[in-house]
UniProtKB/TrEMBL annotation:
<dbReference type="GO" id="GO:0008798">
    <property type="term" value="F:beta-aspartyl-peptidase activity"/>
</dbReference>
<dbReference type="InterPro" id="IPR000246">
    <property type="entry name" value="Peptidase_T2"/>
</dbReference>
<dbReference type="GO" id="GO:0016811">
    <property type="term" value="F:hydrolase activity, acting on carbon-nitrogen (but not peptide) bonds, in linear amides"/>
</dbReference>
<dbReference type="InterPro" id="IPR029055">
    <property type="entry name" value="Ntn_hydrolases_N"/>
</dbReference>
<dbReference type="GO" id="GO:0006508">
    <property type="term" value="P:proteolysis"/>
</dbReference>
<protein>
    <submittedName>
        <fullName>Isoaspartyl peptidase</fullName>
        <ecNumber>3.4.19.5</ecNumber>
    </submittedName>
</protein>
<dbReference type="Pfam" id="PF01112">
    <property type="entry name" value="Asparaginase_2"/>
</dbReference>
<keyword id="KW-0068">Autocatalytic cleavage</keyword>
<keyword id="KW-0378">Hydrolase</keyword>
<keyword id="KW-0645">Protease</keyword>
Amino acid sequence: MRALFSVIFLLISMFLNGQGLHGPGYVLVIHGGAGNITPARVTPEKQVIYEAKLKEALAAGQKVLANGGAAMDAVIAAVQIMEDCPLFNSGKGAVFNAEGKNELDASVMDGRSGKAGAVAGVTIIRSPVEAARRVMDSSQHVMLSGKGAEAFAGEQGLELVDPSYFYTDESWQEYLKVKERLEQEGRKGTVGAVALDSHGNLAAATSTGGMTFKKYGRIGDSPVIGAGTYASNESCAVSCTGHGEYFIRNSVAYDVSVRMLYLGETVEQAAAYIINEKLKSQGGTGGLIAVDKNGNISMPFNTPGMFRGFVKHGAEPQVFMFR
């Protein structure tokens, strides 16, 4: 009887500490884009602002996880902080396309159920990542685009805004420079989050404004399940950022998972190989964040920098920008 009480007490203690029966407790990892992010391009003053916003995003997701909430709720909470921040290329402050308009993409995937949702080319939905979640939860589809996605978001009661909401002078000036040179030279990046909750469930979310001066209704990897976003409780949760065409061709987010499952690689081995060897050999640039079912994380990138950070149960949040 005494042994039984000891086991019960141990289980209760584990749950109270947010560990459940899965050992590592909660984990949250975020990114704010990869690219030519260097101390020379991001001033010390800007570095302080970026660090504060990354920590705010981590805190929003951590609050959900610390209270026993779901990984999906946590990644949505974290991404929405960055969607509302003009420092990043998602939501407010998203880059402009060739027509001088903001077109937004986002996706989510739930590792427990395998369900996923995405929106692409939307222009009036304040939180594209929340719209992606509604596609997953409240429709029979995986991806909706353009006017149809916006009509669906309105039916779901999501906040719709005038396109001018997404405008920031920094993004507009960047657009004018790129328009003049007809090439991309942006510093702002896609945002994303991956999480493991105290119940052992994984989730991933990604949100972006796409590529500066993109043409012809171009859609990158961010809303494509398996390319820019993927989650499975059997392996890991992944969110990507970078030159989307390469991530789509290589099914990067899904590739991390299958290398773990089929080759027995760790999340760090799989992610590092894909970003630093496979993509780099093709000329593809970018990075990703990932967390596996045991709470191990990976944040590789093959560019000068990537806005990123993580927080784990019982530890202080950490954020990084440069290599």
